[in-house]
Every structure is written in structure tokens, then in C-alpha cells.
Amino acid sequence: MIKKVIAAVVLIALLTVAIVQAVDKKTDKQPDTAEEASANKTSLTIGAKAPDFELKTLTGDSVKLSDLKGKKIMLNFWATWCGPCKEEMPAMEEYSNTIDKDTMILAVNIDPQLKVQEFVDKYKITFPVLLDAEDAVNTSYQVISIPTTYFIDSKGVIQNKFVGTMKLEDMKDYMSKLK
Known about the structure:
The protein is of the alpha/beta class. The chain has a single domain (29-176), classed as Glutaredoxin, CATH 3.40.30.10. It has 6 helices and 7 strands, in the order ααβββαβαβαββα. The chain has a 7-stranded mixed sheet, with helices on one face.
């Protein structure tokens, strides 16, 4: 009987040590690329470096986030079938007409197989629409619901995240806080 109790105590102690060591090995290092974030499933938090990515626009041009360092970025994830996305697009377009050359809106479409160009034409969108055909950027930014918008400062650091439909005032407010 005593041997069983000792064995149970030793087993519990070993499990406790294993759990503590596993928790201690967690790191605060943020991923440098969309692929790393996706592979690591690292939680994106305010103050984390925004994972880099490269996506094509509707015109076939490539946009790489790291090439935009020095600019303030409003990174919006959306889909053509999303009602709240349709609701906020006119405000995004209106805001895009007021920003300076050091500020950008990037709209990452998560359903490029659906009539994206038709949507862009209907809403008269002039800011860059990026196509996440492989779902890699959506995954690395851990977008659970859309629309979701990240606000990235000129150093490439996530300063805020907004989930849901944004109003023009919200966009101006969040972007004005970026450096």
C-alpha cells in the first residue's frame, strides 16, 4: 500500500515538473512572417510585430507588408458575402480619400474565388484590395470573425485591433493614435 502511495506522489510530482517546464518554455518572440505565425499559432497581441506577408492585388501587383515600413497601415480583413463588411466599405473609401502618403489602407479579401472585382466596382473602392487565395494571412493574423481590422504603426508594430463594423470616426480615431 505504501509503495502505491509513494508511486502516486512521484507520478504527480513528475507531471507537475513537466507542466511547469512546458509553461516556462513559452516565448514572447513574435513571428516575422505569415508562415511562421501560422506554424507557431502564436497569439497576436497589441505591441507585437505584425507578421509579414506578400499578396497580389486585383491587378496582379504584389504588395509586401515589410516594404511599407515607415507607413501607418489600416489592415482590414473582409469578404464579399459579409454584411458588416459591406456596411463599412463606404466609410473606408471615404477615409481613404482623406489620408496622406504616409498612411495606407490594405483590405485583405479572404474569399478571392467570389466576385471580388464586381464588389470593388460596386462600392467604388480605390484603396488596395489584396487576395488571400491560400488563406495564409487570414490564418497568421488569427482572424476569427470579419470584418477585423489591425492598426499597424510605422515601425511595423500592431497598436490596436478592431473586430466588427467600423464607422468613419473609429477609423480616424485609431489611425490618429499611430506614430
